[in-house]
Amino acid sequence: MTAYVADAKAGPNTNAAAAFARLKTLEGKWEAETEMGKAHLSYELIGGGTALVERFSSEKMPTMLTVYHFNGDRLMLTHYCEAGNQPRMQAGPFNPETGELQFQFLDATNLASPGDGHMHNAKMRIVDHGHLVSEWQFYEKGEPKFTESARYTRVK
């Protein structure tokens, strides 16, 4: 049996590797006060350090997961959303000075049509060892519907 690996290349590009290395420093627990109440993030490395799992929970929303990983030389995320779909996004260039990393929609599973509601873009800025800013943009009918922003502080 042969495994299919889409877009596989020799390995991660330098900028993507630097971005993933910075993402790994998020391992631990985080909290933020948001419009939806207190939000919690936890980060855990899995797969021998090849993937980073982000677990999001809050007082008013169900738990969601996002997995950051490589596909060939591309840094990707797969978001397991309360909307019932799983958008995949690809990282753009990483700015190591500001700690900013943006992800753009690539495709999604369980999305009946492109106009159905889904997370479409994500931006994070790793300010320092104890602070993280995240911004997730939800699209519906091909247009931005809302953005969820939070400033997290490390608690563990």
Brief write-up:
The protein has one helix at 14-24; strands spanning 28-34, 37-46, 51-58, 64-71, 74-80, 86-95, 100-109, 118-128, 131-140, 143-154. With 156 residues, the chain is mainly beta.
Task: Write up this protein.
- It is a single chain.
- The N and C termini lie far apart (43 Å).
- The chain has 1 helix and 10 strands.
- By secondary structure, it is mainly beta.
- The longest helix has 11 residues, at 14-24.
- The relative contact order is 0.17.
Whole-Å distance between the termini?
A: 43 Å
Identify the strand order in the major beta sheet.
1-2-3-4-5-6-7-8-9-10
Helix content: under 10%
- Share of β-strand residues: over 45%
Instruction: Compute the CA-based radius of gyration.
Output: 15 Å
Number of helices: 1
Average pLDDT, rounded to a whole number, is 91
What characteristics describe this protein?
156 residues, mainly beta, 1 helix, disordered N terminus
Topology:
Blueprint: H1 14-24, E1 28-34, E2 37-46, E3 51-58, E4 64-71, E5 74-80, E6 86-95, E7 100-109, E8 118-128, E9 131-140, E10 143-154
Antiparallel strand pairs: 1-2, 1-10, 2-3, 3-4, 4-5, 5-6, 6-7, 7-8, 8-9, 9-10
